Amino acid sequence: MNDLQKLKLDRDRSANAMRAMLDICERESRDFTEAEKSRYEELDEELTMVLTRIENQERLNRALNNRSDSNSRYDQIFRDHPAVENPGFEHLGELIYLAGNGRLDDRFNSLAAEVRAATTKESSWAGYLAPTEFEREVFDSFIQQTTIFDRCRIIPMTAREIELPCWDSEDRESDIYGWSPTWSGEGSARSYQDAKVRLVSLHLHTLDLYSSASNELLRASNFETIIQPAMSKAIAFTLEEALVAGNGVAKPKGIKNANCAIKVGRATAGAISYEDLRGMVAKVIPGDDSGYIWLASPTAYENLLNITDPGSAGTLLFAPDKGPIGGMMGYPLFKSEFAATLGSEGDLMLVNPKYYVCGIQTNPGLIAFEASPHALFSQNKVAYRCEILGVDGDMIVDSKITLRSGDECSPVVILK
């Protein structure tokens, strides 16, 4: 039995006990005694608390389920990506190892033939494409190390630039998307309404890696096995940094710098309090909260471990041991080194990545590389250059959302 099922049993137990007490008083045509009244109030308090916990747990489950399985979610990228056949390499490490040592046998010929058409650079360059099966291995590995990329909206791009149609505004103060449906009687005239649409431009930015390896390292017995996981980790780190905090100059614009962000002032300088969390959750978009997640810096994360729920007799608000991803106020909480240090703006963020669109290159080849034993010959090193990925990203909402009540909310809420 999981936690949610136990909570629902507690709910039913309290509700049934309260109903039984009411039935007794109704049959006997009397009011509660003082003892019965006290017990009924205790049950009512327990029921209110468990209903809140059920709501939070269900919201957390919806958020976790929003993270789709990569085998289905990312197949579209490789489906639109012309396959580069593997001419017989055992793994990516072997390919890079042989290229670095200048041992270019016939297997490299088919990989070199396609690189000029595949590169996202405006001018072509000599090198080799990684076979699609190796790209998939790198891709599947690095997405498991990301938080934003694995939850945002992915758009395969076969051109360097695309324009994506989006709604011009999510404001609901007077209409939504330019529409304001009206209640009309029979035979009443209807008014024509224009939808408000804008274009979000995505331009592929190339993630490059220029590095070197000493000849001694290349001769090491395990070099072939360590290169791929190291590359995956480097890609994940750099991409996640851009999607969280990128400034949009030659890289994606990160969620932290979104035009639609709402900044909530903190109650106490240098710390995070229960009041801060309540203020941030109040800015969540009503009816569309299933994709929100918390991002906290390591120092902010430590602070959160000490916050208690005032309504639960000192119970810790955040308990990482309650599940695979600790939830706080019903939303998953992730530690991020790209959030600011405790006390600084952005040390804690509440964001909904499904409002972030990420375009990714698919034409053809995600990884292209070249190796030269000549550039660093005097240092006894081999130089590598990898064109890893073409990516761009931005929010599909470009301003905070005003609700019919006049309150403001956003898919990006930042503690100031």
Largest sheet entry: 6 strands, mixed
Strand coverage percent: 15-25%
The helix count comes to 12
Portion of residues within helices: 25-40%
> Helices and strands, in N-to-C order?
HHHHHHHEHEEEEHHEHEHEEEEEEEEE
Low-confidence stretches: 67-71, 116-125
Derived structural class: alpha+beta
Polypeptide structure, described:
By secondary structure, the chain is of the alpha+beta class. 34% of the residues lie in helices and 20% in strands. The protein is elongated, with a radius of gyration of 28 Å.
Q: Keywords, please?
A:
6-stranded mixed sheet; 416 residues; 12 helices; alpha+beta; elongated; 34% helix
Fold topology:
Blueprint: H1 3-27, H2 34-65, H3 70-73, H4 75-79, H5 92-100, H6 107-113, H7 115-118, E1 128-129, H8 132-143, E2 153-157, E3 161-167, E4 197-203, E5 205-214, H9 215-218, H10 223-245, E6 262-264, H11 274-281, E7 293-296, H12 298-304, E8 327-328, E9 331-335, E10 348-351, E11 356-361, E12 368-372, E13 381-395, E14 401-402, E15 408-409, E16 412-415
Parallel strand pairs: 2-11, 6-16, 7-9
Antiparallel strand pairs: 1-12, 3-4, 5-13, 7-10, 8-9, 10-16, 11-13, 12-13, 14-15
Give a quick precis of the structure.
The chain has 416 residues and is α+β, with helices and mostly antiparallel strands. It has helices spanning 3-27, 34-65, 70-73, 75-79, 92-100, 107-113, 115-118, 132-143, 215-218, 223-245, 274-281, 298-304, and strands at residues 128-129, 153-157, 161-167, 197-203, 205-214, 262-264, 293-296, 327-328, 331-335, 348-351, 356-361, 368-372, 381-395, 401-402, 408-409, 412-415. Helix 1 runs antiparallel to helix 2 and helix 8 crosses helix 10.
